[in-house]
Amino acid sequence: MFQAAGAASPAPAHEAKNSSGGSTVQRSKSFSLKAQVKEICTACQKTVYPMERLVADKSVFHSSCFCCKHCHTKLSLGSYAALHGEFYCKPHFQQLFKSKGNYDEGFGRKQHKELWVHKEVESGTKSA
């Protein structure tokens, strides 16, 4: 009827007793009857279902939407390069960015060399 204060609490509903003994079997925690959160494709903004789901750099895509920004070739997880949230095939990534030797230059950002020159000018005037 009543349990002692130190007695174990009854088994939760998701645990089932094994018929051969007193041991318990726990069901997988990954299985849930709750509705799954709908994931949205980064490229097309439509729902991504588990069979067509592809995750690259923490972004979710349909496998058919994961394309090079430059040539729109379909990419795979082994054939892409990412820079500033944009995805490229490896040949175009090299053509667009590595040949210049400066990743920022391809995006119209201020080059780091300009910052170094500015610091050298400041330090040169202070020491003279």
Automatic annotation (TrEMBL):
Stretches for region Disordered = 1-25
Classification via InterPro entries: LIM_LIMD2 (IPR044115), Znf_LIM (IPR001781)
Keyword Zinc part of the UniProt annotation: yes
Superkingdom classification of source: Eukaryota
Alphabetic keyword roster: LIM domain, Metal-binding, Zinc
Q: Which Gene3D superfamilies match?
A: Cysteine Rich Protein
PROSITE patterns found in the cross-reference section: LIM_DOMAIN_1, LIM_DOMAIN_2
Q: Which GO terms describe its molecular function?
A: metal ion binding
| Domain spans labelled LIM zinc-binding | 39-99
Q: Where is the composition biased (Low complexity)?
A: 1-13
Task: Give the stretches traversing the membrane.
Answer: none
Name of the protein described by the UniProt record: LIMD2 protein
Q: Which organism is it from?
A: Catharus fuscescens (Veery)
